[in-house]
Amino acid sequence: MKKQIDVAAAIICKENKIFAARRRVGKHLAGLWELPGGKLEEGETPEQCLARELEEELNIKARIGSLISENIFDYGAKAIRLMAYEVKCFSGDFRLIDHDAMCWLALNELNTIEWAPADIPLLDRYKELTEMAVCSSSSKSNGYIQENG
Ligand SMILES: Nc1nc2c([nH]c(=O)n2[C@@H]2O[C@H](COP(=O)(O)OP(=O)(O)OP(=O)(O)O)[C@@H](O)[C@H]2O)c(=O)[nH]1
């Protein structure tokens, strides 16, 4: 049976935009865009893996937030379990060490680039959750009564 590889990926958000990086020539899925991250090493939690990968690939230090969603995807030659975590706190200047391009996209721009297929359901889920959060916070503020005097 084909081995399933565990991969952790980061949904890095800044000012309502999400970070994407392009896989470089020579790699599996070269030219497609992905969330930064990588394969779990033995004994590593997904959070530890992500913190390590973000430092190795992008030169940033990050606090890994909650699991947004996961997706099992079969690429034929290999199958992966891709786990996406939210990252809102990070420091350092982004440097492309392992990718050949990067960009920041608003939620309504996510479909303007070509993502690795395994990422698409995860990004859809993230969009859904973010829109739900915006909706619930605006309904809370509508319900708040402010009185004069
Ligand atoms: N990091 C990352 N990998 C992804 C994403 N989506 C996706 O399908 N993958 C796949 O997950 C696998 C693991 O990623 P990796 O970055 O550790 O692998 P790699 O190909 O650079 O390393 P390798 O050359 O040592 O095999 C790759 O086959 C990659 O194509 C994603 O959003 N982020």
Describe this protein's structure.
- The longest helix has 23 residues, at 120-142.
- The model has no long low-confidence stretch (mean pLDDT 93).
- The chain has helices spanning 46-58, 120-142; strands at 4-14, 17-23, 33-34, 37-39, 61-63, 67-74, 79-87, 89-91, 99-106.
- The protein is an alpha+beta fold and 149 residues long.
- Strands 1, 2, 3, 4, 6, 7 and 9 form a 7-stranded mixed β-sheet that branches.
- The protein has 2 helices and 9 strands, in the order ββββαβββββα.
- The protein has a single domain (4-141), classed as Nucleoside Triphosphate Pyrophosphohydrolase.
- The protein is globular, with a radius of gyration of 17 Å.
Features of the shown structure:
globular; binds 8-OXO-guanosine-5'-triphosphate; 149 residues; 36% strand; alpha+beta; DNA repair; 8-oxo-dGTP diphosphatase; two-stranded antiparallel sheet; 9 strands; DNA replication; single chain; 24% helix; EC 3.6.1.55; Nucleoside Triphosphate Pyrophosphohydrolase; seven-stranded mixed β-sheet
